[in-house]
Design goal:
Number of helices: 16
Strand order of the largest sheet: 1-2-3
Largest sheet: 3 strands, antiparallel
Subcellular location: Membrane
GO molecular function: glycosyltransferase activity
Transmembrane segments: 12-31, 43-62, 69-89, 109-124, 131-150, 156-173, 180-199, 283-300, 312-330, 350-373
InterPro entries: Cell_cycle_FtsW-rel_CS, FtsW/RodA
Keywords: Cell shape, Glycosyltransferase, Membrane, Transferase, Transmembrane, Transmembrane helix
Shape: globular
Amino acid sequence: MLQRVKKIDGVIVVVLLMLMAVSILSIYSVTHGRDEDGMHLQMIRWYGLGFVAFFGLSLFNYRLLVKLALYIYIGGVGILVLVSLFGTVKYGAKGWLSVGSFSFQPAELFKLVLILALASLLVRKNKSQLLFWRDVVPLSLVALLPFAVVISQNDLGNALSYMVILVGLLWIGRIKWTHALIGLMIAGFALLGFIYSYIHYHEQVTDFMSTTIGREHFIKRFDPWLVPELASSDDSYQTRNAKIAIASGGMSGEGYLQGGSVQSNKIPVIYSDAIFAQIAEEFGFIGASLLLLLFFILIHRMILIALECKDWAGPFLIIGIVAMLLYQILENIGAYIGLMPLTGITLPFISYGGTSVVINMASMGIAMSVLLYGQDVEEELPAPALHF
């Protein structure tokens, strides 16, 4: 055990501590003196629990999680269904389960569950190239089932993350180039077709979304992104003021606790998914770039771990985690500079939120477990008792 502890990647631990410091300072900056004052202290407690999960999973052999992944997946889908039945609505999405004063977001947790399930199924392919009907379609269904459940809860951000994780794992899982190219072309044309239709047939599309499928919440997300001139002032308020704050930061920022927009409370719930606006306004382009550098170092270290692993389960897990983090980073920041729709996805390790922080730290613990146990002789996985 001691020998494994000594192998823990110190760079990753230091980067996580630095991200924790950035998160706590940023949350304090936008909550002190307000009704939310004290959130930074709660974030410290969440990070404490996160580091427990990180070190606990680091010392837990990831191969056992892979063996149990299909059972974990079934349990995870069951919890998502419970959310649809008994969940509470926050920020327009019915994505929270409450037990007394404690509440958590199962859709966040399921990202890690999906990575485990897909990795478990891929490793049983024994390094063979994926066939479309035998492999790609069943794997896609494993991701599409939770996608459909979470979309029904109006949680677009987490639902899309499942698709990104699927694409990342299919790519490393040796999907045929022809299948990958066809899939990307279909997805690309579908996206372009949706954007074109939304802009040029806005009234018809929004009427269908609001009255036929009951997704008026999505319109409030898409309008500020695609047709800002048609968006109501309420719908575009957050992203418009966030863009102003980011632009105001300039090269070096307005100074800690000195941001004109973020300190005047012009950006709703900025401590959550809009926290990047605080960093950009108060620390400028330099501060935002340093944050992205920390993310790059973290992802780079994980890829190095994947390359050194002696089995296939480890790299599958790490690529799934990397895909999850990259999507969250690009979607969160992109939404506030006008490149992506606002989906409510959090900025990993920075935004306020217990479920998000603990799950991200747990993901890093699994990546560290791959480092500590991935050099051992590969154990053959037993034939699964459950099939999809």
